[in-house]
User: What shape does this take?
Amino acid sequence: MKVPSASVRVSRFDELGLRRALSGLMLPMLVAAMAFLAALALGGWVGSTSLARQWRDGAGSALTVQVPQPGEPAAKAGGTRLSVAVALLSATAGVASVHVLSTDELADLLRPWLGSSVERLAVPLPAVVAVRLAAGGADLGLLGRRLEEAAPGIMLEDHGTWIRRLSTLAFSLQACALLTVVLVSAVAAAVIAVATRAGLAARREAIEIVHGLGATDGFIAGRFARRATLLAASGGAMGALVAVPMLLTLAGLAAPFTEAAVAVPSAVDAFSALPPLLWGGVAALPFATALIGFTTAQATVRRWLRRLP
Assistant: This one.
């Protein structure tokens, strides 16, 4: 005759000896390693998204206009080809600023390809005008036609190819980061499942006795799940804490490629070095690992109990 399962419950008593069956050292360390890798993957996802957005915004709001033979007279207006192009660009709605690159600036741009001989280059160079668009942008098709009518041969480059390449790069990095998080989560679940199976094998006799006294599958699975949840959560917390200094270091290395570089002086600056989304992801790691531990232990124990004779 079976007795109610409540009769085998003793408050704060380890009926199944799970403190010995599920190690309080090995499992948290393995989960911490998985949480650390997941934090780095989240950092890569957030960082690539932020950098790609800044680069796309910068390239999308910039135009480059090349004016061959800038000193020659313009076709339909008084002045040189360069002055007419600059006047037309400045008067165009949606253009925030117009800057004609100086000879020194052009030399700096060409020096990586031509070396120090760029100053002695005999080929006449076109004038290069850097244009910054306002938030609303401008009608580039109409602008290009007006420039061609005023000074034939002018070339307008809107960096669309680079924007598409940056979008592809950002998508690839995000997909890799997401795949890494999924793989790390699967490995963490596998580690917890193996540890739970080892605990079941080690405490098989005690489990069979308690089960024979009337303990339900839910009661036994709940005990294992509680222990696995605690260990997984502690491992996730350790991994998240270890990952924070690494993420701050990576943020410092990536700072020159962002709009604002953050030094390391104060805690406030260190906190602002990482985006809020990344802080939220790192803070959620202990809860995520706890959920993985709970669900994995529950499923593993229930499946094992159904195979008991």
Observations:
- The two ends are 17 Å apart (CA to CA).
- The first strand starts at residue 62 and ends at 67.
- Strands lie at 62-67, 95-100, 127-133, 155-157.
- DSSP finds ten helices and four strands in the chain.
